[in-house]
Amino acid sequence: MAQLNDSGHANQHVSRSDHHDHPDMEEMRTFGFWIYLMTDVIIFGTLFAAYIVLQGNRNGGPGPEELFQMGGIIASTFILLTSSYTSGLAVLAMHKGNRQALMGWLGVTALLGATFIVLEVNEFIHLVHEGATISTSAFLSAFFTLVGTHGLHVSIGLVWMIALIIQLAKHGITPATKRKVNVISLFWHFLDVVWIFVFTIVYLMGVR
């Protein structure tokens, strides 16, 4: 009996140890995401600095006031900011334990993000048809690199979000999926903040 009790205590100890280890791993993964996010801040900071330095170097070509169609840009901005709101609603649904609402709001967020990407691709196509390519001038090289890098991040976020919706459908709300929802929401809000700077520095200041 003593041996069985010892074995039972040992199993309980292992179970409790596993229970305590799991949140620690989730916290470490979240910490790793914050480190990644800091590297993204540095990348975008560098791209913004390059754009500010090079925006006047147009090689005799067109500038922002001739190229930018602000109607579409304002629509894109509204769509992306709305997606940040729906992302927040997804997190609220998660905290309430409502899986269907969580998946639904993530789906709406992904749809808005996809619409933003379509509008951005259309903008790039328009610029190319106008003869404004990445090799036309230093200004356009900096523009396409900055805006395109942001668009690439949004596209990665979309793939990530769709994969998370599939995981939620299979496994439900678990500690792992909770962490992933929190992380993708932070990532999405970060991209919205970056876009506000893009909208202000690149577009508004460009056409003023």
Q: Which secondary structure elements does this structure contain, and how are they paired or packed?
A:
Layout: H1 2-54, H2 64-67, H3 70-95, H4 99-129, H5 138-171, H6 175-207
Large-scale geometry: elongated
Q: Can you give the mean pLDDT?
A: 88
The largest pleated sheet is described as: none
Q: Which series of helices and strands comes N to C? A: HHHHHH
Count of distinct strands: 0
Number of helices: 6
Approximately how much helix is present in the residues? over 70%
Approximate strand percentage:
under 5%
What is the rounded distance between the termini? Answer: 84 Å
Q: Rg to the nearest angstrom?
A: 23 Å
Poorly predicted regions are 1-21
The secondary-structure class comes to mainly alpha
Write a short abstract of this structure.
The protein is built from 6 helices and no strands. It has 208 residues and is an all-alpha fold.
What does the model show?
Helices cover 87% and strands 0% of the residues. The protein has 208 residues and is an all-alpha fold. 24% of the residues are buried. Mean pLDDT is 88; it is low at 1-21.
